[in-house]
Structures are given as structure tokens and as C-alpha cells.
Write a structure and sequence with these properties.
alpha/beta, Membrane-bound Lytic Murein Transglycosylase D, Chain A, 6-stranded parallel beta sheet, 3-stranded parallel beta sheet, binds zinc ion
């Protein structure tokens, strides 16, 4: 090797070492300036840290080439995150990594990549966690148009100016903190691929409400607010009666969808030919939530449903049936095509499963529809296995006696109620 190539290698090495200098970032609560004779061992001992803690506070630190004058993070009170972090979250009491990544619609691996060395088992109140990466996250090629924040600008002014809504602005700028936008900051206000971004999912071009099935002499029995522990008994009954049903489930309402027994009920529902559709994550009135909350109410549940049955719903029953034009626009934006209401409300929740009252509501409903969608619940106050099964069996026997066939929502409306495979949640 001649001296030319040696010096070339030396230059490369210098570039590498320079780039491998300690990388602690703004969240560091305490730093140490490297002096002559310092070693990593000396530093972590001096500040009562372990080697792994020092490394987690300084991702990429090269202990064999510590440079005099370089800063090393030694503040153990904060979680380090990489330099491109554009939004932080301050850990509160009771927070877990799971809560944080769910709250921000991230995955575990995304949270970890934004916070190298984060120790989820020892999160402390006041720790700063990076929840969005990239300088404003809009530097990617997908942003078609940027806006530079001016003095006095607010998020509201900006999304109004560009004719977009809050959800869109936030989707274009993940991690955007509207309370702290500053003049000179660049925000993405238009995405080149909002209309068709393949496996990211795309907005729906139309939205239709249903209260009845499209096929005469069918009925669609639906159960809201579950899963609940009696759903397995309900599934036995439906199987015995040869009826397909639809379950509008929640993620975290009366049951927690992360619970394995609940997941196996959902799997069984799907495997036995029933439809499993969205009733939102936590049963909030969608006309009363922020756009950010709206998004998470859909996405958190969808991601779990996808994890369990491998399908994403594009039909939803909004909690309380509550909706307005803004709800519809948001649902479309997030890829939903069908809103499912009902023609018959059995009022099982208010009459506490009273069989004769439920029977009368169904009977009355048949006077005005030959293909009703019927609202029941998997859970209501004072529910018992016996009450639930007795009322549902009575409903089914009555409808079948009239010559009606019990079908799932897909058959009822004559459209697929799930997105095509590979289609994810719109960004
Ligand atoms: Zn409900």
C-alpha cells in the first residue's frame, strides 16, 4: 500500500471518527466535556453510570477515540434520542412504552428507533421521549408543498389557509406540536401521494349509510360494545341456528382487546363467518373528539383487528350512531366506505334484556322493513348469559319463522366490508 492510499484511508477514518463522536441530543440533562486522559470507564464511574447506560445516553459513542473537548451525555434523568427528533413527549406517572407508542400511533420498533437505548422498564415521570423523527418529518420526497410559518401563525390558520383539516395537517407533519410552532419552521401542507399511496391505504371515494340490507328477506343481527365474556356462548347459539352475524367491537371499552381470551373470541367470530367491524377504540362520540383523537380511535382498533384476523374493516358503526358531515369526511379520509346504523333497535341495554320487550321491537320493525339491520349488544347493565341467549334465540326464531335468513354485513349490503389485502391505514 503506498502512502497515497494510506492517507486516503486516514481521511476516511477521520470522517468516520468525526461522525462517530458522541451524539447526545437536546434532551440530555447533564453533559461532560472530555479532558485529556479521559476514558469511557472513567466517565461512567465518575457519574455513577454503567457502560450500557453511558452508551444508551450517547448512541454511537466511540470509546476508543474519545476526543478532547467533545461532549458526552451523563445525565441519567433523560432518555436520549436521535438528532432528527421533531417532537417529544414528557413521561407522566403511570406511563409505559406501550401507552406512549399507542398514543402516537407508533410501533414498538419505531419508538425504539427514535429513542436508542430507551429503557422501557425504567421510564420515569419527567423523562423526555422522542415521538416523531425527521426535521418536521416533511423533508421526504412525498411532501409536495411546504409552508414557512410566519409570525402569529397558528395551526388553525395554516390548515384553513390551505383548505385542509387538522387531521390532514397532522398526518402530513407527524409529531407536530401546534402549541409550539415557531416562525421559520417549515410545515408540509400538501402530499404528492395522498390520493393513492398503495399499501399505506387511501381515502375512500364514497361513503354510504345502511339501515337495512340490500337483499329482501334477510336480516343482519349486530352486536355492539363487545367482545364480552358471553360472546362465546353467543357464537355457539348462532352456530346452532345457522345464522351469521356482525360484531361491532371496541378495543378498550368493556373488554381490553389486548387480552388473549378476547383475541381468541374475535378470531372465532371471524373464522365462523361473522363480520368483525369497527365500533372505535374506546367508544367516544366521534362528533365530539379532536381530529387527532378521531384518527387514533380508528387506527388503534384497526391495527389490533388486523393483527388478529388479517383484515382491516372499511365499515364502521360510530358509537351511539352519532355522526355529522365532519365525521363522514374524516371516515372517508381514513378509508371507510360504509356506515352501518340500524332499522330495529332492540333497546336491550335499556330494557336490560327483557325478552318480550325485545320481541315487540323486532316485530314492529318488520312492519316497515323486509331486510332489517338489528341492533343488539354484547354487553349491557345487568347482562347475564341466560338473559342474552334467551333474548337472541327468541329474536332469531321469530325472524326465521317469518322466512328471513340471518346474514353477516357483507351479504347484507352486498359489498366487501374489509379493505383489499395489503391496504393499510391512510397516513
Ligand atoms: Zn356502542
Amino acid at each position: 500500500m503506498n502512502s497515497k492510499s494510506l492517507s486516503f484511508i486516514f481521511i476516511l477514518l477521520s470522517i468516520y471518527l468525526t461522525n462517530a463522536l458522541p451524539l447526545y441530543k437536546r434532551s440530555c440533562s447533564k453533559s461532560h466535556k472530555v479532558v485529556k486522559g479521559d476514558t469511557c470507564h472513567k466517565i461512567w464511574t465518575k457519574y455513577g453510570l454503567s457502560e450500557s447506560k453511558l452508551r444508551s445516553l450517547n448512541p454511537g459513542i466511540s470509546c476508543s477515540s474519545l476526543k478532547i473537548g467533545a461532549s458526552v451525555c451523563v445525565g441519567s434523568g433523560s432518555v436520549s434520542y436521535n438528532s432528527s427528533c421533531s417532537s417529544h413527549y414528557t413521561v407522566a406517572n403511570g406511563d409505559t412504552c406501550y401507552k406512549i407508542w399507542s398514543k402516537y400511533g407508533l410501533s414498538e420498533s419505531k419508538l425504539r428507533s427514535l429513542n436508542p437505548g430507551i429503557s422501557c422498564s425504567s421510564l420515569k415521570k419527567g423523562d423526555k421521549v422522542c415521538v416523531a423523527g425527521g426535521s418536521n418529518n416533511n423533508s421526504g420526497s412525498s411532501c409536495k408543498s411546504h409552508y414557512t410559518v410566519g409570525k402569529g401563525d397558528t395551526c388553525y390558520k395554516i390548515w384553513t389557509k390551505y383548505g385542509i383539516n387538522e387531521a390532514t395537517l397532522r398526518n402530513l407533519n407527524p409529531g407536530l406540536s401546534c402549541s409550539s410552532i415557531r416562525p421559520g419552521q417549515e410545515l408540509c401542507v400538501k402530499n404528492s401521494s395522498t390520493s393513492n399511496n398503495g399499501n399505506k391505504g387511501s381515502p375512500s371515494s364514497s361513503f354510504t349509510w345502511y339501515k337495512e340490507c340490500n337483499t329482501p328477506n334477510t336480516f343482519a343481527i349486530t352486536f355492539d360494545d363487545g367482545p364480552y365474556k358471553y360472546d362465546n356462548d353467543l357464537l355457539d347459539l348462532l352456530k346452532k341456528k345457522g345464522v351469521k352475524a356482525t360484531f361491532f367491537i371496541n378495543g378498550d371499552n368493556v373488554s381490553d382487546i389486548r387480552n388473549s381470551s378476547i383475541r381468541s373470541i374475535i378470531k372465532r367470530m371471524y373464522n365462523e363467518g361473522h363480520n368483525v367491524l369497527s365500533h372505535t377504540w374506546s367508544h367516544k362520540d366521534l362528533t365530539k373528539v379532536s381530529d387527532t383523537k378521531f384518527r387514533s380511535e380508528l387506527k388503534l382498533l384497526e391495527d389490533q383487528i388486523y393483527d388478529i384476523i388479517g383484515k382491516r374493516p372499511k365499515a364502521i358503526r360510530p358509537p351511539y350512531g352519532s355522526n355529522n358531515s365532519k365525521v363522514i369526511n374524516n371516515l372517508k379520509y381514513f378509508g371507510y366506505s360504509y356506515g352501518i346504523l340500524w332499522h330495529v333497535d332492540t333497546e336491550d341495554w335499556s330494557n336490560l334484556g327483557n325478552v318480550s320487550k325485545i320481541h315487540n321491537f323486532v316485530k314492529k320493525g318488520l312492519e316497515t322493513s323486509k331486510s332489517p339491520i338489528i341492533l343488539n349488544h354484547s354487553f349491557y347493565k345487568d347482562i347475564s348469559r341466560e338473559k342474552l341467549l334467551k333474548a337472541v334465540e327468541d329474536e332469531i326464531d321469530y325472524l326465521k319463522g317469518k322466512g328471513f335468513k340471518g346474514v353477516n354485513m357483507e351479504t347484507c349490503i352486498g359489498h366487501s366490508v374489509y379493505r383489499s389485502s395489503g391496504e393499510g391505514f391512510p397516513n
